[in-house]
Design brief:
- Strand 1, helix 2 and strand 2 form a beta-alpha-beta unit.
- It is built from 13 helices and 12 strands.
- By secondary structure, the chain is an alpha/beta fold.
- The N terminus is likely disordered.
- The termini are far apart.
- Strands 1, 2, 3, 4, 6, 7, 9, 10, 11 and 12 form a 10-stranded mixed beta sheet that branches. The chain has a two-stranded antiparallel sheet with strand order 5-8.
- Helices cover 39% and strands 17% of the residues.
Length: 399
């Protein structure tokens, strides 16, 4: 039996329901957004997404690997979202959608020029209004108050001995102050810890600046191998500094925890400090401060050997490539991070597997997609099995 429906009456009922729904929506929407605004901790900018929004500056003057590594470090924190931003993005007010900004390594004066004066002011206002900023190496230079240097005057420090800026690099040692031990309890009981340093600024207090910073760690390595740099210049100087700027906070690191296996987690911890947020634990695979127990500063002789490794990867035998990878890993080569990715697709299964292990040992999260592709496309059964292990080692860094 068919039931005849009065379409006119049905249409009126539907219309009434739509009117009622619309009226209820209009009534409740203001309250919804009011509650959202009231629930944001520390005046955070994200309305519907409760995660901390972090932008990593990716502009002319940044070192590409430094950008990659800063992004990878933030990915260790389950409560953070990260994206790269450019000077154009800043000009178009991307900072309004962010909670914290990271200026990575590269060249501070070139970053300054790439940003331009209007964006400089936007960054200062961003921090002064209550947001966070982390400067790493060149970023710390950029945040400094160094006379005669292009900088934003955000951290109250001035760099000295700039004429010997290319002083060298390697795994440097540092010690935490009492403030640093509270921020980084994972290494508070260690007398000395180690992270990668690459020609970072030598800071002292700028007495002419009104900004007062606190030192969270002290540099203990004397880096002077290159550029005719004087001895006893870097050691004893601030390694990590932290300060307030208006309603916001600034953290400056002269070195590269994000480029150091086992220490990448220190970068999101710095971001948390700038936002006055509680610290959280990171995965046991990510927090491994005991991977380095000694200083490894690259000498001029080491730099020549490092350069030979590049030629070996181009023209060497399987055995030579394996030896080169061993040497580069033992020295935590800065340059090798740009060379090893392609070795995942080398003609030799031994080299492919050793490259995968290199990436896993150095926790190079940026190459996770390549590591996965190399594993899935591997034709040698034994190599494929071992590649899977290396892939999941890197994947385990993530929360």
């Amino acid at each position: 039996m068919k039931i005849k429906v009065n379409t006119k009456t049905k249409g009126k009922a539907k219309s009434y329901r739509m009117v009622a729904f619309t009226a209820l929506t209009l009534l409740l929407t203001p309250w919804y957004f009011f509650l959202q605004q009231c629930s944001k901790p520390n005046g955070r900018s994200d309305s519907l997404n409760t995660k901390i929004q972090v932008g990593v500056f990716d502009g002319h003057g940044d070192a590409q690997t430094c950008v990659w590594e800063a992004v990878a470090a933030i990915r260790l924190d389950p409560e953070m979202n990260v994206r790269t931003i450019t000077s154009a993005d800043i000009a178009m007010n991307v900072l309004d959608s962010l909670d914290a900004l990271i200026i990575p390594g590269g060249g501070g004066s070139r970053q300054y020029l790439n940003l331009g004066e209007e964006n400089h002011e936007k960054i200062r206002k961003f921090v002064a209004d209550g947001k966070g900023a982390v400067g790493i190496c060149a970023g710390a230079y950029l945040f400094s108050s160094t006379p005669g240097y292009s900088c934003l005057q955000l951290n109250g420090a001035k760099a000295i001995d700039i004429e010997h800026d290319n002083r060298g690099h390697g795994v440097a040692k540092f010690t935490l102050t009492d403030d640093g031990k509270r921020l980084f309890p994972e290494i508070a009981d260690r007398d000395t810890s180690y992270v990668m340093y690459y020609e970072g600024p030598v800071f002292i207090n700028n007495e002419a600046d009104t900004i007062a910073y606190q030192t969270y760690a002290v540099m203990e390595s004397d880096v002077h191998e290159e550029g005719n740099s004087p001895k006893n210049m870097t050691n004893g100087k601030p390694f990590f500094t932290a300060n307030r700027y208006g309603k916001g906070r600034v953290f400056s690191s002269i070195a590269h925890p994000e480029a150091t296996p086992g220490m990448m987690w220190m970068i999101p911890r710095m971001v948390r400090w700038t936002l006055d947020m509680p610290i959280i634990e990171y995965t046991s695979e990510a927090v491994k401060p005991d991977l380095f127990e000694k200083e490894i500063l690259m000498s001029v002789v080491d730099l020549r050997e490092e350069s030979k490794c590049f030629d070996t990867f181009l023209h060497g035998t399987t055995e030579q490539k394996l030896e080169a990878l061993d040497w580069l890993q033992s020295h935590l080569s800065w340059s090798a991070k740009r060379w090893v990715q392609g070795l995942l697709y080398d003609g030799s299964p031994e080299v492919r597997l050793r490259a995968a292990k290199y990436i896993a040992d150095t926790q190079y999260l940026h190459y996770l997609p390549d590591l996965k592709a190399a594993w899935l496309s591997e034709q040698d059964a034994e190599t494929k099995k071992e590649m899977e292990v290396q892939y999941f080692r890197v994947l385990s860094l993530l929360p």
